[in-house]
Amino acid sequence: GDSVTQMEGPVTLSEEAFLTINCTYTATGYPSLFWYVQYPGEGLQLLLKATKADDKGSNKGFEATYRKETTSFHLEKGSVQVSDSAVYFCALTYAHQGGKLIFGQGTELSVKP
Amino acid sequence: DTAVSQTPKYLVTQMGNDKSIKCEQNLGHDTMYWYKQDSKKFLKIMFSYNNKELIINETVPNRFSPKSPDKAHLNLHINSLELGDSAVYFCASSQEFRDEQYFGPGTRLTVT
User: Fold this and answer.
1) What are the two backbone dihedrals, phi and then psi, of residue A102, each rounded to the nearest 5 degrees?
2) Contact by Cβ (8 Å): A28, A85
3) Under a CB-based contact definition with an 8 Å cutoff, are residues A29 and A51 in contact?
4) Mean per-residue pLDDT for B92-111?
5) What tens digit of pLDDT does each residue of B12-29 get?
């Protein structure tokens, strides 16, 4: 079945460090891919998305490129801030599956000043 | 204005009780969802509704009964609560199935 795998956390970085959170997926078709972020005590917010191969999603300095050949959607940011500390979820969905989001296990990021 | 709202935010109850969680969205979306987040933060879909019609029931025990009185509301009723039901429940909505979903703030259910 379809699945999403993320790198294990927690990830601890110093402010202004470069961030990469790996995400790979297994899919039978051509899903849409998403990164969601969950700040402590809050619900999930969409960070960025890509709907087809080679699309690049970007928002708030974060970027991810839909790579069909490597079935990956890695999240990157050039310079993290303390306020980026949160749990990041990679997810996929298909139109024909009733909108079901299949999530990775989440990666906790902690940024120290 | 809050796009997707849930009530209550916290719910503490005893085993065997029946409880409900309410969800409302003011985004004009056609599709609404319930997700469960366990203690390890893993998220799994429970139900989805499109225009008040049940689309997904992801092998959830029949103690859980969603109800959609209209497109803007999707409530979750849970009968005979068990310890394993303790989790954070998130409501979400989207315009189309493939679109991004907007999540509510979550309801933390604790069963003692």
Assistant:
1) -105, 120
2) no
3) no
4) 92
5) 999 999 999 999 999 999
**pLDDT of B38 strictly over 80:** yes
* Average pLDDT along chain B: 94
Beta-sheet strand order (sheet of A75-77): A19-21, A75-77, A62-65, A56-59
The structure tokens listed for A67 are: 């790579």
- Is A95 in contact with B98 (Cβ distance < 8 A)? yes
Residue B58, pLDDT above cutoff 90: no
Closest partner residue to B97 among A34, A87, A99, by Cβ?
A99
Mean pLDDT of chain A: 94
Question: Which among B46, B90, B97 is the top mutation candidate for probing chain A, defined by the most A β-carbons within 10 Å of its own β-carbon?
Answer: B97
- Rg of chain A in Å (alpha carbons): 14
Establish if A1 touches chain B: CB-CB under 8 angstroms. no
pLDDT by residue (tens digit) across A73-86? Answer: 999 999 999 999 99
Verify whether the Cβ–Cβ distance A106 to B41 is below 8 Å. yes
CA dist A109 and A13 (Å) reads 8
Which residues in chain A are contacts of B96 at CB distance < 8 A? Answer: 95, 99
Sheet holding B4-7: strands in order across?
A: B4-7, B19-25, B73-78, B64-70
| Cα–Cα distance measured from residue A37 to residue A15, given in angstroms and rounded to the nearest whole number | 18
